Amino acid sequence: MDPRIDAAPSARGRAPARFPNFRAGPAPEDNTGRIPNGGNAENATYGLTMCAERVAVLKAVSEGARKFRRIAVAADTDLLTPPCGACRQVLWELCGDIEVILASPRGKTDMLWMRDLFPRPFDASFL
Predict the structure, then answer these.
(1) pLDDT of 84-127, one tens digit each?
(2) At CA 63, angle to CA 61 and CA 65, rounded to 5?
(3) Residue 102 has what DSSP assignment?
(4) Does the pLDDT at position 53 exceed 70?
């Protein structure tokens, strides 16, 4: 199977999602083929929760990644779950127009581009 899709459920399993018990696991692939991962980190105040996609991408950036090819996201639901709005903003700014692969626990997948998920992004070009 695809290593990105294989890495995402593993990341999902490590997510400390205690409150709504919704786990997500992303597996971003940088331009060298490295696949760091991370999971959502929830907090009792909810507002301080950090979504899985932001955790993984910020972890990768902190480890030196600067360009990305794609990201796979596996959530706990059979319904393929795209990144939230905040994650879309971070993905656009740090990763650009990359492939986004969505995966379910039962093996259903779909591939989208960031430009389709986030068609009119706010970015540095407006500053």
Answers:
(1) 999 999 999 999 999 999 998 888 999 999 999 999 999 889 99
(2) 50
(3) E
(4) yes
Q: Which neighbouring-strand residues pair with 102?
A: 73, 110
**pLDDT tens, residue by residue, 81-95:** 999 999 999 999 999
Q: What is the pTM of this model?
A: 0.81
Residues 29, 111: Cα–Cα separation, whole Å: 14
Please pick, among 29, 53, 63, 99, the residue that the annotation labels catalytic: 53
52 Rama class: left (phi>0) / alpha (psi -120 to 50) / beta: alpha
The secondary structure of the chain in percent helix, strand, coil, rounded to multiples of 5, reads: 30, 20, 45
Instruction: For CA atoms 76, 2, 102, 19, give the dihedral sign.
Output: positive
53 annotated active-site? yes
**Domain annotation for the chain: domains and CATH numbers:** 3-118 (3.40.140.10)
Encoded tokens for 6: 């294989």
First to last CA, the chain: 42
What are the residues facing 74 on neighbouring strands?
A: 25, 103
